[in-house]
Amino acid sequence: MSKARLMQGNEACAEAAIAAGVNFFAGYPITPSTEIAETMAKLLPQHGGKFIQMEDEIASMGAILGASLAGCKVMDATSGPGFSLKQELIGYAACAEIPCVLVDVQRVGPSTGQPTAPSQGDVMQVRWGTHGDHPVIALSPWSVRETYDATVMAVNYAERFRTPVMLLMDEMVGHLREKVELPEKVDIYPRRKPTKTRAEGYQPFAPEEDLVPNVADFGEGYHIHVTGLIHDETGFPVGSPKVTEDSIRRLHEKIERAGEEIIHTESYFIEDAEYAVVSFGGTARTAYEAVREARAAGRKVGLVRLMTIWPFADKVIAELAAKVKGIVVAELNYGQIVHEVRRAANGACPVSLCGKYNMRAFEPGEILASIHELVKEVEG
User: Fold this and answer.
1) Which residues, in sequence order, are bridge partners of residue 351?
2) Which of 33, 87, 108, 167 could pair covalently with 77 via S-S, beta carbons 3.0-4.6 A apart?
3) What's 104's DSSP letter?
C-alpha cells in the first residue's frame, strides 16, 4: 500500500482510471465533476496518455468512442445535463460494443438545476436514458477509497464486456475529502484481441464463449466496419428480423451471464434486523449513522448498501424482504430506486421511501424519523 493521502473523490476517480490503464480522456467541464477533468489534464500526459477538452459534451463522447476503437482505454466525466447530451452516443457504444467509462457526478435537476447541490436523481437516466434495448452496468461508490476501487472495476468491466460502464457518483462523494491509502498496483483487464486472422475466418462481431466479440482495433491490419445499425458478425448492417433479435438478445445475455459476480452490495447489522434501510452512494453514509443511532436506542435495524446499481440486486433485496418487517429506501431524489426495491421485494414486506430533493444532504435524524414512521405503520 502507498502512504496515506488526503484525497478528494473526484481526484481518486481520475487517478484510479490512470492506474487501470485509461490513456485517453475527452471531456467538457461541468460542476460537480470538473476536478476529474482537471486531474486528468494534469496527470494523464505524465503517464503517456492524451487529454482533450472538447467543445461540448456530445463531442467529448464521440472523441472517446473514436479513441476506444483505435485501441485506447477511455473515460469521460460529466454531470446530469451533460450526461443527457451523451445519451445517443451511449446507445451507439452499446450497439457497436465499444468499451468506455462514463462518470456522472450527479447534481440537482432537472435541466441545469442546481449545479453545486448534491442529488441522486440520475439513477433512472443511467438505466433508461438512451433509446432501444440494451443492458447497463452502473456502480455507485460511497467513499473516496471505494471511488478508486469502483473506477478500476468500471474500466475492467468495460473492457471485459465491451460495453459502456457508468460510474454513478454524487456531489457528496465527488467533493468529499478523506484519508486514503491507495494500492500500489491494481488488476487490469487487457483489451480483447482477435484470436484468428481473417484467412482463418475472423469476423469482428462473432461472439466468443462469453458472448462478447473480440473486435480488432483500427490500425491493426484488419478490415472492420463499425456502425450503430444492427449488424451481423461481419459488422455490416443487416435488415433481418432474426439477426436483429439475436443481436439484441446477445447484448443482454453477455451481461446477464455474469450474474451475481458483478452485483456488489454490503450489509451492516443485518443478522438480527427487524427493519432495514436500503441506500447507496453518499446517502448510504448518513443511513449508516442513522442505523447506528437506531441500534443505540434499542431498535433492531440494519443497512443494505447497493454499490452496483445496475444490474439491480434482485436476489439480495428479495432475501432481505423475506427476513425483515419493513424496508426504508433512503435516496436523495423524489423516489427512483425505491421502485426497484418494491419490485424485488414483491410484496414480502412494506417498502417506504425516505426521499429528499432540496439541495441539502440527509441528516441522520431524517432517516431515523422514516424508520420510526415505518415501525409505527407496521406495528401500530
Assistant:
1) 327
2) 33
3) E
CB burial string 284-312: b at 16+ within 10 A, e below: bbbbbbbbbbbeeeebbbbbbbbbbbbbb
Distance CA 280, CA 95 (A): 29
Lookup: cell for 368: 431515523
How does pLDDT run across 94-104, given as a tens digit for each residue? 999 999 999 99
Residues 6+ apart with CB under 8 A from 347: none
Pairing of strands 177-180, 265-268: unpaired
302 Cβ contact list (under 8 Å, min separation 6): 267, 268, 269, 270, 271, 273, 275, 276, 277, 291, 324
Residue from 32, 85, 88, 13 nearest 54 by CA: 85
Q: What span, in angstroms and rounded, lies between the C-alpha atoms of 251 and 255?
A: 7
- Distance between CA atoms of 112 and 115, rounded to whole angstroms? 7
Residue 173 host element (H or E): helix 171-174
Relative to beta strand 137-139, strand 74-78 is unpaired
pLDDT category at 1 given cuts 50, 70, 90 is low
CA quadruple 140, 333, 75, 115: dihedral sign: negative
Give the 3-state secondary structure of residue 55: coil
CA–CA separation, 324 and 91 (whole Å): 39
User: What is the per-residue pLDDT across 109-146, written as a single tens digit (0 to 9) for each?
Assistant: 999 999 889 999 999 999 999 999 999 999 999 999 99
Rounded-to-integer distance, Cα 12 and Cα 8, Å: 6
**CA separation (Å) from 281 to 111, 139, 288, 317, 332?**
22, 9, 11, 17, 10
pTM, 2 dp: 0.97
3-class SS of residue 375: helix
Q: Are 308 and 127 in contact (CB under 8 A)?
A: no
Q: Who contacts 335 (Cβ-Cβ below 8 Å, separation ≥6)?
A: 353, 355
259, with CB counted inside 10 A (0-12, 13-18, 19+), is: exposed
Distance CA 137, CA 166 (A): 6
